[in-house]
Each structure stands twice: as C-alpha cells, then as structure tokens.
Amino acid sequence: MTNTETKPQKRRLASLDALRGMDMFWILGGEKIFAALFILTGWTGWQVAHGQTLHSNWHGFTFYDLIFPLFIFLAGVAMGLSPKRIDHLPFQERRVYYAKALKRLFLLAGFGVLYNHGWGTGIPFNLEEIRYASVLGRIAIAWFVCVMLVWHTSLRTQIITAVSLLIGYWLLLCFVPVPGGQAGDLTMAGTWNAWVDQHLLPGITYQNRATDPEGLLSNVPAVVNALMGVFAGRLIAKANQFGEWKTVSYLFGAGLTSLALGWAWNMVFPVNKDLWTSSFVLVTVGWSLIFLASFYAVVDLLNTQKYFYPFIIIGANSIVIYLASSLVQWEYVAQSVFGGLVNAGSEAWQPLLAVFALLAVQLLVLHWLYKRKILISV
C-alpha cells in the first residue's frame, strides 16, 4: 500500500502580486517620474528622489538597488507559502519535480541571455561575445538552489545554510588572498568576484567590467535572499495560528533587525550590490520584509486590492513584461499612440506626459492579458 502525502493548499496573496508589481514598476519607466517632476517644478527634492532611482556606483545603497533582490525574495515567499519535502518519495516520483525545476532554471537563464541582447541588436554569432550572466539567470540559480533545499532539508538546516553562506562569503572576500592579489581587496578588479569572472565566466561581462554585477560568485549569497523569503512565506502561511496582525508585526520587526545587522556589518564588510556582499543581503532582506509586511497588511488584511490593481497586473505577468522591456521599443509605441497628447502639452509638461504614456501602453497590454486570465509564468 502506497502512502500518499496531503499537499498543503497554496495560498494566493494579492499583496505578493502587488509588491512584485510595485518592484517591476520602476523598471518599466517609473524611475523617470522624479526627473520629469523636477523639470516641471524645479523642486530639488525631486532631484534627491531621482538619485534613489539610480544604482550605487560601488559601495553604498539606493532604493533602486533593492529592486533585484526584492524579486528574488518574493520568489522565496511564494515557495514558503506551501513548502513541501519530497526527499521521502521514490526517485521515480521525484523525477517530475526535478525535471520542472531544471526546465525553469534553463528557461530563465536562456531568457536572461535574450534580454541582454534585446532592442533588435541580435545575439552575437560569436559565442565569446555573448553576455551569459543576467538578472533572470541569477533569479533562476537562487530559486533552483533554494527549492532544492526546501525539498530536501529541514527548516533548521535551511537556517544554518543561510547563516553559513553569509559568513563564508564574508570570510572568502575579506580574509582569503586572491591569486596574484591580496585578501580583503574590495575594488572592482581586486576581488574574488573579479578573479572568478575573468577565469570561469564564459562570454563577456557587463560593460566589459572586471566584475560582472550578475557574475558567478555573487550567486552564492543571493540564495540567502530567496531563503529568507521562504522563512517569511512560512510565517504568513501560519498567520491563522499566530494571528494575522501579529504576523505583520513579526515581519516588520524582523525587517528592522535585519537592517540593523546589515548596517552594522557594513562597517567591516561594505554594502555593495555588484559584489552582493553579506551586509547587502541583510539590508535588502530588511527592506524586503518591511515592504512585505506593509503590503500584506494594507492589500490583504485591509482588503484594498482594487486600489493596487496597476501593480497587481504587473506582478501577475512580471516575467513577460520584464522581457518585453528589453525586446519591445515601448517608447516608439507610446509615441505612436499618445504622441499627439504629449506634444500638445507645454515644454515643461512633456517629459512627465511622456512617462505616463510609456506606462499607459504597457499597463493596457497587461490589463488585456489579466482580464483574459492569460498569466504567463516560467
């Protein structure tokens, strides 16, 4: 007689789609709003806000640096809402799970290469001129390693793994000498990341830098962003047991704690997105938890989904619109559809109207997909 496992019901959170959509909004054109508002009003506060929509040059942190790790974190949250162990199953039954996981891994990595060479330039014929490292590739790797841990290990092992990865990465970058270099050199060309990318990463790096911001070695700590998402998802899944508003307070408190630890670690191991330092992981996890707590409280507990509809439709088809942001010339489409309205405005208003037009054409496509229940995921 074969034992069957009762699968937990997967909980669908509107706040998860809304937060994912808010995250993607800034990639689709939202980051241009503040610069346009500065042109319109001349208020220097908009310039300060615009600075937060640019990546840090090296060490440091801006709001825009959060977009990528937040997406990885949310992939973990979705996993944590219905975690399951499959290591007790016969291999024949597990093969189906492994096949799906590998398919997702390679599809996302392949889409990442496609994204890198969007805008009609074409993927180079010479394989050595292709950039294989990508945002989607990192999401794929972090998700794949994380799901294997969730499927095969206990919560205790996952926590130990997360802590070990962060400490181990710090020890490697700060205390182990780089071949031909020295220990603790955190310049762009002097780190272990640069050495690994120059010797092991195929193809080219981003803008031919010594260190690729999505390079091989920095995939290791990125796994922790996904694992921390799993822990948050598991907590939300037990909200009925703890109390929903108490769950919000737990998430918010954990976020503040992670932020404090990350900025404390920053004093000896700087927050750095390109290196994806351990302190960067804690800072981004902290903000991710705070945003998750806020969206879970406002969108799900206060039942305000209708007010977040634009974000929800972005989040529901996030991979599709992310790929389209590279492969489709949305500015041309927006000019074709709304160009007359934009040009009718005064010179000061035109930049802001152009941003609204750019966002509008993308939201119209996403609305059409959502209403027809066409939700494409990998």
UniProtKB/TrEMBL annotation:
Ranges in a coiled coil: none
Membrane-traversing stretches: 21-41, 61-81, 101-118, 130-152, 159-178, 216-236, 248-269, 275-298, 307-328, 348-370
Keywords tagged on the record: Membrane, Transmembrane, Transmembrane helix
Protein origin, superkingdom: Bacteria
NCBIfam families tied to this protein: NagX_SO_3504
Protein name according to UniProt: Uncharacterized protein
Organism: Pseudoalteromonas tunicata D2
